[in-house]
Amino acid sequence: MNNEPKEPNGEPNVVSGKICWSEQGASLPLKNIPVWPKAELPDETLKALAQAQELSSGITATVESIQMGYQQMQDSMAATREVINTASIAFASLPDYASIFRNVYPALQRFADYAKEIAQGINFGAIAGALRPIALKAKRIELLSKSNWPMYLVDDAEVCNALDMLSPQATTDELKDLIAGIAYDSLDSDWLEETRSRWEDHAEISSGERGVLARALSRHEQGDYEGCVALLMNLLEGLVEKYFPNEMSKLEDEQAELFDIHAKKLGVGLSHKKNGEPRKLTNVKDKVLVMVVLSENGWYTFNYAAEYIVGITFANTMDADLAAHNPLRNKICHGQQTEYGTLEHSLKAILVTDIVIRYGAAILESQTEIEC
User: Phi/psi zone of residue 83: left (φ > 0), alpha (ψ -120 to 50 degrees), beta?
Assistant: First the structure.
């Protein structure tokens, strides 16, 4: 049966190969249309139909959302399967660490047993006992540095014990007072006589220098602290020159690097000029630092001692606080520091002179051995 739309004459309406309805439509006599009776639905029924329509529209959206979520879940599951497959391949190619450890464990156990045997043979108590004096000496040197008391070469049991008993909680000002008290008690006539004998044994010291040193100690012994300081500060730079090797006026390589470390810290010129050429070391501060570079024995101690000599004894700038407790050689010789007649000034002048003589002599001796 052909149900396609017809033209009024009963033929299909074909336009460009498509079937469509005629704009006029087929003429149907009204008498053939049946008349349906009118019926009105109750309000409750209409309301129920509206609710049903609303629910059906919501269900449609929900179903569409579920379909979309399900599709995303399928995509995620597919990606997860891909990751699992890749990981499985990767883990399959890893070594069997459990087997490796089982093979290595016996060797590790033997090494642990061997290390235990070695440790049992080490006397850690003896090591700690040997290191303790070194640690104590380092602590003493740091305390002396903080207090500006150059007793670095004072090898006296009472001084060492007194320094070891100082409270670590003491402030810098308290340390200065406490260590000054230790110095006044320990640097007595016996110490002065030991210093005199030691200086007399240095053959490199000329008769003129020996006379100045002797008179300075005698002035101190008599209480003429100002005279002692004046004599020693005028002699000090000459002593540095005496012990400075002329061939070391220019430094290279490791010695230059070590010199520069101290020079930067103390504000002294570097070993080389900006153009890279070695600088001729003629300043007295340069020469003290060269003595540090050349010192082989007691380098750690002389490092601190040199800081006192360069930074305080040969200070270029007048500092009233430093001058009140320390002899500033340049300022004394130039007439800028005029008050230096105390026991503290005199003791520090003797201590600094002793450091230069003892370290200078050691450097001369080492240089002589190298030449031989």
Answer: alpha
CB atoms within 10 A of CB 72: 10
211 and 343, same domain (yes or no): yes
Do 144 and 263 lie in one domain? The reply is no
pTM above 0.85, yes or no: no
Do 210 and 149 share a domain, yes or no? no
Q: Which residues of 335-354 are buried (b: 16+ CB within 10 A; e: fewer)?
A: eebeebeeebbbbbbbbbbb
Q: 14 in helix, strand or coil?
A: strand
Is the domain of 138 the same as that of 210? Answer: no
Mean pLDDT of the chain: 78
Q: pLDDT tens digit string along 126-145?
A: 555 555 667 778 899 999 99
Instruction: Report the C-alpha gap between 330 and 318 in whole angstroms.
Output: 9
Q: Confidence band (pLDDT; 50, 70, 90) for 155?
A: confident
How many CB atoms are located within 10 Å of the residue 69 CB?
10
